[in-house]
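Subject — a protein and its fold

Tokens — whole-number codes for backbone shape
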Amino acid sequence: MYIEKLATNLNRQDEQPNIEVAEMLVSHEDKEGVLEIVQGLKQKKAIANDCIKVLYEVGERNPQLIADYAASFLDALLSKNNRLVWGAMTALVMIADDKADEIFQQIDNVIDAYKNGTVITIDNSISVFAKLCRADKKYEKELFPLLIEHLSTCRPKEVAQHSERAAICITDSNRELFIETLENRKQDLTPPQTKRVDKLIKKLQA
């Protein structure tokens, strides 16, 4: 029913049909429809690309509707199709609070996708790592050093955005190291980038 409404099957080059499918699924809280779209991830590339778009658009509006499919998104991280990989990482951000344990069980695959992924994959993986850190001290112990390493070495233009993504997991015990890392990066940043980082530091110190 929903697969036939996807952009590819309508011979459309834009994403609007996929967004409309997502909105229909959300408005009807259609769990069977969501399952149909999840199963579409196994179809040909164009259909799979449409389906992952629908799923993270659903997740943005109602994460609970896609929360049961963490395993499908984790599997998609192993795909050779970059669109599927970054779309799956985007979806994982939306369910990481509820599915932290399930995601952490396959953290090696998430880290591999982060290390080998496109810019969007990397952006969203930082949010996944931060949410897992926030969910459990055990996860923080393993993943917070990765976040610090990333912020210490990423491209200057990524420092502000990625530090903002990571900041959700900052606590009294890790705040000092996080701020110290950002202070050390300021020498690499432009004035506008520095201003953005300073704003975050001030917020964390409040």
In short: The chain has a mean pLDDT of 97. The first helix runs from residue 16 to 27. The chain has twelve helices and no strands.
